[in-house]
Amino acid sequence: MPDKKKTSSAKSDEKRVTRPPATKPTSPGPARDAEAGPAFDAGEQFSAFEAAMKQFHERHLAQARELFAAAAAGPERDVANRARLHMAMCDRRLQQETVKLQSAEDYYNYGVALINTRKLSEARQNLEKALALNPQADHVHYALALAQALGGDLENARGHLARAIELEPRNRLIARQDADFAAVARHPLFDALLYPEKKGW
After folding, report:
1. How far apart, in whole angstroms, are the C-alpha atoms of residue 47 and residue 38?
2. What's the pTM?
3. How far apart are CA 124 and CA 128, in angstroms?
4. Residues contacting residue 100 through CB under 8 Å, at least 6 positions apart
5. Which of 46, 170, 179, 181 counts the highest number of beta carbons within 10 A?
6. Nearest to residue 131, comparing CAs of 113, 105, 158?
């Protein structure tokens, strides 16, 4: 009997010991908030994301990535997820841009590839670099004329096409048969250049 009393008292002691830990569930709450708490509020997160998108569309990828990283740390989950997706896109494009273009032909080939995907602004930039390295390259003048024509810059396009034909007369016939030039071939700026024989009609 005395032994049983000891065990019951031991049980009551155990109960006293186990009661204080019941307050533990309250401690993870503040700790979780402090851990997940953003450095800025939702309004600042939206502002960072919008600024990042602007830089992204203007092809300032490094700056855009930094802003997306800031937006990804904000409290709004949807914005944070979209920011992380755009960060990954920035990373991929930055890796592609690290491809070393050195010669005029490198810039020319890359420029033509960009024309084919209708990234005309980038195509022009690369073709202009190719032309700076090799100003007498008729095929570069031709490609630059095409990029400018497709982009609506008909006056500059005509100048480069005229130079391409001057350097290599065969480019006149090529332009006549080029489907990409078809939309502007009959424009007054190009008509006399591509069809000089009409002057005698």
Report:
1. 14
2. 0.52
3. 6
4. 106
5. 181
6. 105
Question: What tokens appear for 35 in the block?
Answer: 């851990």
Residue 198 neighbours by CB under 8 Å, 6+ apart: 191, 192
Whole-number Å distance between alpha carbons of 172 and 190: 10
Sign, CA torsion 4/9/12/18: negative
Long-range contacts of 115-118, Cβ-Cβ distance < 8 Å, separation of 24 or more: 115/143, 115/146, 115/147, 115/150, 115/180, 118/150
Query: How sure is the predictor about 97, in pLDDT bands with cuts at 50, 70 and 90?
Result: low
Specify the 3-state DSSP secondary structure of 125: helix
| Domains defined along the chain, listed by start | 1-98 (no CATH), 104-200 (1.25.40.10)
> What tokens were used for 112?
């033509």
pLDDT at 39: 54
- Does the pLDDT at position 194 exceed 80? yes
3-state secondary structure of 58: coil
At 99-140, the pLDDT tens digits run 678 899 999 998 998 898 888 999 999 999 999 999 999 999
Strand intervals (E) in the chain: none
